[in-house]
Design goal:
four-stranded mixed β-sheet, 12% strand, globular
């Protein structure tokens, strides 16, 4: 596995403010209507996702059996299953979903070394994608998938799925990871408005706490949520150039910029009354619960931070309605501007064959993206997908902001790192940030341990 180099998607930080402004406008827009103008004129599939006006040609695969592996559980898995059902209907293939757990690189590595890889894997980490491509485990995307990518995707998203000039990955599901979701009733009762800066955010949290509701729900049992907290604070405070340097490990985790970000984050993590259940409670709370308890009928929490896919959890596990009971605002600015951190899951073929390539082709089409988009809790980097495919104004706003950003975004830092550091449950960055949540005063200790783990992982990556 190579040392990961973040794609130079933007040139410096000059456009970050512009992108943030677009995101803020899109997220807060209301009552403006939508004519679906974001879609391609060739995007003619019907709303059911049926093949009557298909925008993509797929082969007959009757009798073939395929396996698709992904980390998704709950509502995400159910909605992806709808996409696979449509693929089965169009091709005659039978597709089995294989859950991987959070440590997807370990799971898949074991399967591959045992000679039983799934046909396709949905990789949430660009570092793992490049590792698999370098090792020969991943198979290059064929002409069908490549044609769909060139038609429907911007260069930045294509580049994220490429290695050494060859296309491997289809980024089917994207994520805007710079969002704070809030319970509107809690905000109204506390008399607070959407904060724009980190200081305002902490003051808002304190006011909510004073009103009798624990303000910030944190899914600390899942270490990846903590990496997202750090990355947003770091990008806004240290800036895009430092972000790229840390993502590539060209500066150490003992750098003063990391100390500053952890200290800033500690202003939240270190105040027990601001975190639902305190530090110990947060460390026992998994991501889905962090969302559901925020929008429970007994107003247990005021806010939860995470990506657009929070909407899917709200819809499946609570009675709250996105856009009325649940609203969203951009991650507050710590430095000069709010951060824009993106992530995504890339479909990669791990077996040769017509079936795997056909599925990659389908996932790169507008037809596949529309199926999940209509269910909610999903954002597609497919620029040809009509805005009207999304079920509510909040989702449409988030999607518009992502497409409007073009190639100017920063990809999730931990997902760019070697999996041993940035993507393994119970170790590396996940574990060290959980330790930091438990003891936010030990900034230097957290830095030292993060650097030791990073140095080892990047060295082994070669």
């Amino acid at each position: 596995m190579e040392t990961m180099h973040a794609p130079r998607i933007s040139r410096g930080g000059r456009r970050v403010l512009a992108v943030t402004a677009v995101a803020a406008l899109a997220l807060t827009a209301a009552g403006c209507g939508d004519d679906g103008g974001g879609g391609s004129k060739n995007d003619k599939s019907d709303k059911s996702g049926g093949a009557s006006n298909s925008s993509v040609s797929l082969p007959e695969l009757g009798g073939q059996k395929l396996q698709v592996a992904a980390v998704w559980t709950g509502a995400e898995q159910e909605n992806f299953r709808k996409v696979l059902d449509e693929f089965e209907k169009r091709t005659g293939a039978k597709v089995t979903f294989v859950p991987t757990g959070d440590s997807i690189s370990t799971f898949l590595g074991t399967k591959i070394e045992g000679g039983q890889p799934p046909d396709v894997a949905m990789l949430p980490q660009v570092g793992v994608l490049r590792q698999f491509a370098k090792s020969g485990w991943a198979k290059p995307a064929g002409p069908g998938a490549t044609a769909q990518l060139q038609k429907n995707y911007g260069k930045g998203w294509q580049d994220l799925g490429a290695y050494n000039g060859k296309q491997y990955g289809v980024y089917f599901k994207a994520a805007n990871k710079s969002l704070i979701w809030y319970n509107t009733a809690v905000f109204e009762n506390a008399g607070v408005k959407e904060p724009k800066t980190w200081d305002e955010f902490l003051k808002t949290a304190q006011t909510v706490a004073d009103s009798g509701v624990e303000p910030v729900s944190i899914g600390g049992a899942d270490g990846w949520t903590l990496t997202d907290w750090f990355e947003n604070v770091y990008l806004s405070q240290a800036g895009p150039e430092k972000y790229d340097q840390l993502a590539q490990h060209r500066i150490k985790w003992t750098d003063p910029s990391v100390k500053q970000a952890l200290t800033t984050l500690g202003r939240l993590f270190g105040k027990k009354e601001l975190v639902v259940g305190g530090q110990s409670g947060a460390l026992q709370t998994e991501f889905p619960k962090s969302v559901s308890q925020t929008f429970a009928t007994d107003d247990k929490a005021g806010m939860v931070f995470e990506a657009d896919f929070v909407a899917g959890v709200i819809g499946s596990e609570t009675k709250a309605k996105v856009g009325s009971d649940a609203k969203v605002f951009p991650f507050p600015s710590v430095g000069d501007s709010s951060p824009v951190v993106s992530a995504g899951d890339a479909a990669v073929a791990l077996k040769d064959g017509k079936g795997a390539q056909a599925l990659l082709t389908f996932l790169a089409s507008t037809d596949a993206a529309r199926i999940w988009a209509q269910q909610g809790g999903f954002i597609s980097p497919n620029k040809s997908l009509a805005d009207s495919s999304y079920p509510d104004e909040v989702s449409r706003g988030i999607a518009k902001a992502l497409i409007a950003a073009g190639d100017d975004f920063r990809f999730d830092m931990s997902d760019q790192a070697p999996a041993a550091f940035g993507g393994t449950k119970g170790s590396g960055e996940w574990k060290r940030l959980q330790d930091f949540l438990k003891n936010p005063k030990d900034v230097s200790g957290a830095q030292s341990k993060l650097e030791a783990d990073a140095a080892k992982a990047y060295k082994n990556a070669g």
